């Protein structure tokens, strides 16, 4: 099973867009607030939220194109 994590910050509107995309694709994911877990920023140095980590690899920052997201997940 694919492990998906969304690295987010408080009040991140782009994060909810990515969550909705994953919900529509019926892909389970975990939301991680990097302000509460700064160790994620050490592992995945993102400068823009959201960061999308798939199978422990940072694949996207910001909102990915749906086709690119599907290609990474399917």
Nutshell version of this structure?
The protein contains 3 helices and 4 strands; from the N terminus they run βαβαββα. By secondary structure, the chain is α+β, with helices and mostly antiparallel strands. The longest helix has 12 residues.
What is the fold's blueprint, element by element?
Elements (H helix, E strand, L loop, with lengths): L3 E5 L4 H12 L5 E4 L5 H5 L7 E4 L2 E5 L4 H8 L1
Parallel strand pairs: 1-2
Antiparallel strand pairs: 1-3, 3-4
How would you describe this structure to a colleague?
The chain has 74 residues and is of the alpha+beta class. It has a single domain (4-73), classed as Glutaredoxin, CATH 3.40.30. 34% of the residues lie in helices and 24% in strands. It contains 3 helices and 4 strands; from the N terminus they run E-H-E-H-E-E-H. The chain has helices at residues 13-24, 39-43, 66-73, and strands spanning 4-8, 30-33, 51-54, 57-61. The protein has a 4-stranded mixed β-sheet, with helices on one face. A hairpin with a 2-residue loop joins strand 3 (51-54) and strand 4 (57-61). The longest helix has 12 residues, at 13-24. The radius of gyration is 11 Å and the shape is globular. The mean pLDDT is 93.
What structural keywords apply?
74 residues, alpha+beta, Glutaredoxin, 3 helices
């Amino acid at each position: 099973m694919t492990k998906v994590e969304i690295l987010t910050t408080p009040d991140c509107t782009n994060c909810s867009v990515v969550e909705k995309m994953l919900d529509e694709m019926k892909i389970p994911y975990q939301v991680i607030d990097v302000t509460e877990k700064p160790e994620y920023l050490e592992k995945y140095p993102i400068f823009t939220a959201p960061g999308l980590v798939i199978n422990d690899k940072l694949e996207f920052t910001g909102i990915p194109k749906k086709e690119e997201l599907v290609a990474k997940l399917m």
